Amino acid sequence: MNRASSGFGYVELVSTSIIWGVTYVLLKYALSYLDPQQIAFSRFLVSSVFFIPLIFVIRERYSRTEIVTLLILALTGVLLYQLLFIWGESGLTAGNASFIVSLEPIFIAILGVMIKEDKLTPRRLTGLIVATIGLIVLLRPTSITGDELLSAVLVLLSALSWGIFTVAGKGLLSKHNPMNVTGFVSVFGAIMLFPFAFSGLQGLFSIRNPYLILSLLFMGFFATFLGYYLWFDGLKKVSPIRAGTTLYITPFVTVITASYIISEPIEFITLLGGALIIIGLIIGG
Fold it and tell me: Which residues contact 144 (CB under 8 A, 6 or more apart)?
């Protein structure tokens, strides 16, 4: 893999993390009108509308083992990741939930090394440590009470699910088109989410609020259709550890976006945490 290709993949991953950072603000707005299952299903329903035609245009054959891998990706990267985080977040402060789920790069690094998909070089380790310190400074997690322990475990499992999703997808991407792979994952994921959202379908399809509709379309097209594709296409060109570290940008973008949309003040400590995250990405990159 040449350096130019790797560099472009890194740009794709950073762009994805920025999109997802904006998405968390829109998600907070959408939760005022819809339940989490409705939102999760709507995202992948919208993305599937765009992916299904592309699946037929970019035709590829998959072995039985690869089909199982696609189902595992849909299970870990869509169903489990979405629902575990949603259920866990409801019992935690926003700061603690954001911090725990943002530990995904650590899981990606551990899993990548365990299955020999990646190597944790001293430079990457240093970048990961600096970015993690920046995350702690940015989100300032507080102590978790006994009542919040189960919720914390659920969010932690969602982070682990994304780690499995990222590492498991790397091998499949070496043989198949990222758009085709992402399309199947999105469609399978929508099917898996359907039973959880079934009771709320009537409310979902009777929305009249134009801002809510635009938020759902943004989450479905940009965050899911475009975001998941860019993640897989970038992952094809970049190691899992480097890819995972870019996720630390997401909470920083969320904080900055929230300051403009809902006028939350930006503190110096926020800028310091964001600066450390960026420095960590530069070192690890």
Answer: 92, 96, 152
In this structure, are residues 242 and 15 in contact, taking their beta carbons and an 8 Å threshold?
no
Radius of gyration of the chain (CA): 18
Of 236, 112, 244, 241, nearest to 174 by C-alpha is: 236
145: buried, middle or exposed (CB in 10 Å: 19+, 13-18, 0-12)?
A: exposed
Residue 231 has pLDDT above 90, yes or no: yes
Residue with tokens 């400590």: 269
Provide CB contacts within 8 A for 4, sequence distance 6+. none
**219, 43 contact by CB (below 8 A):** yes
Q: Which amino acid is at 228?
A: Y
Which tokens sit at 249? 């940008």
**Cβ atoms 207, 198 nearer than 8 A:** no
Six token digits for residue 175 = 């043989």
Alpha carbon distance 228, 7 (integer Å): 18
Report how far residue 219's alpha carbon sits from residue 238's, in angstroms, rounded to the nearest whole number.
25
* Residue 110 in tokens: 């551990």
What tens digit of pLDDT does each residue of 170-209 get?
Answer: 889 889 999 999 999 999 999 999 999 999 898 888 999 9
Question: What is the rounded distance in angstroms from the CA atom of residue 62 to the CA atom of residue 185?
Answer: 13
**Total structural domains within the chain:** 1
Q: Judge contact between 97 and 155, C-beta under 8 A.
A: yes
Which comes out higher in pLDDT, residue 156 or 27? Answer: 156
What letter would DSSP give residue 143? P
Overall average pLDDT of the 32-45 stretch: 91
Q: What is the C-alpha to C-alpha distance for residues 262 and 86, in angstroms, rounded to an integer?
A: 22
Q: Cβ contacts of residue 1 below 8 Å, gap of 6+?
A: 237
Q: CA distances (Å), 232 to each of 156, 170, 216, in order?
A: 22, 8, 22
Supply the range of the domain harboring residue 221: 3-284
